[in-house]
Amino acid sequence: MAVRAGVLGATGAVGQRLIQLLDPHPEFEIAALTASDSSAGKSYRQAAKWRVNSPIPDDVADMTVTATDPDEVPDDVDLIFSSLPSSVGAEVEPGFCEAGYVVSSNSSNGRMDDDIPLVIPEVNPGHIDLLEVQRDERGWDGAMVKNPNCSTITFVPTLAALAEFGLEKVHVSTLQAVSGAGYDGVSSMEIIDNAIPYIGSEEDKLETESRKLLGEFDGAELSHNSMAVSASCNRIPTIDGHLENVWVETEEELTVDAAAEAMREYPSLDLRSSPDPLIHVFEEPDRPQPRMDRTLGDGMAIAAGGLQETPFGLQYNCLAHNTIRGAAGASVLNGELLLEQGYI
Ligand SMILES: NC(=O)c1ccc[n+]([C@@H]2O[C@H](COP(=O)([O-])OP(=O)(O)OC[C@H]3O[C@@H](n4cnc5c(N)ncnc54)[C@H](OP(=O)(O)O)[C@@H]3O)[C@@H](O)[C@H]2O)c1
């Protein structure tokens, strides 16, 4: 039987992707949709300005959107996918966990809390067991797992593939798509014919989340990776797909061939939304490109290319679809991991 699932923030950019991914998903069934008070009471078709590249699923279009309150969500819902603005997530997500719901969240609130697992299933699946610590400490009947920021998800799997060489210093410079800011995030007057070399709080997220993801969990505590990470974030006028330029300095010598092999052979998982291969390494020097490569692996693969040895270590480019692998697909994958590990 499919797990009954609710979507918080169902009308937004990530919420719509969640609907698109969950509707055909054999393990989950959409049973509740929430958004702001201005959407509550409307049918999903009326409330959501649907912009995803497939029709609104018929059965979802006629569902009624409710306010984002645990009392509005049926008790037989077992799993909640949250794509709320982080200020709203901080206010309401803990209430869902207290009420017994298991929450797989995109929002940045709480990502760096010691007892909240921040998980990319192919990178650090074992961190999910931090939920035992979380339940002890918070006394929740439910639980909270987070996926990282979309630009963190894009480069961390490539670092995980290179970790065996000893990660010392990482520099990453991003070229991020406008959908990463949500539908109302960046006005067309700001971004057309332009690039904006600032995305509020984004650099800190890449620097801190990457160290948490690549840290060690000993069953009681999580220690963060000691590598130094420096990030520079830029918004550019692409719709979907974050492209990133990365330089990695390692303890051991890292050649282009060894790095390409490590990325190509980095294992995928036996979860429905995990693509195989996880990392697609291009030989062509001008790839990956957002428009051409963001849908690799149904939008769940990481693309890499342009590998070269430089005085600042190994340099390469990587790319991921920010609203699929970087957001909605990431939480669905965490939902699959929660199910596989018996947390639902
Ligand atoms: N876009 C990405 O690529 C991306 C990637 C990773 C993580 N994220 C994170 O995912 C979250 C959602 O991002 P988004 O891009 O989907 O944002 P968005 O398009 O602005 O959508 C926000 C959603 O939250 C709802 N909402 C807003 N205020 C609310 C309130 N006070 N109470 C209840 N619901 C409220 C909105 O409902 P209404 O329609 O009723 O206003 C809408 O459903 C954010 O935390 C973001 O940082 C986004």
TrEMBL record:
EC number: 1.2.1.11
Protein known as: Aspartate-semialdehyde dehydrogenase
Family indicated by similarity: Belongs to the aspartate-semialdehyde dehydrogenase family.
MF-aspect GO terms: aspartate-semialdehyde dehydrogenase activity; NAD binding; NADP binding; protein dimerization activity
Family annotation (InterPro entries): ASADH-related, Asp_semi-ald_DH_pep-lack, NAD(P)-bd_dom_sf, Semialdehyde_DH_NAD-bd, Semialdhyde_DH_dimer_dom
Pfam families: Semialdhyde_dh (PF01118), Semialdhyde_dhC (PF02774)
Active site: residue positions: 150 (acyl-thioester intermediate), 242 (proton acceptor)
Annotated Semialdehyde dehydrogenase NAD-binding domain residues: 4-131
Assigned keywords, A-Z: NADP, Oxidoreductase
Gene Ontology biological process terms, A to Z: methionine biosynthetic process; threonine biosynthetic process
The species this protein was found in: Haloterrigena salifodinae
Top-level EC class: oxidoreductase
Keyword match NADP: yes
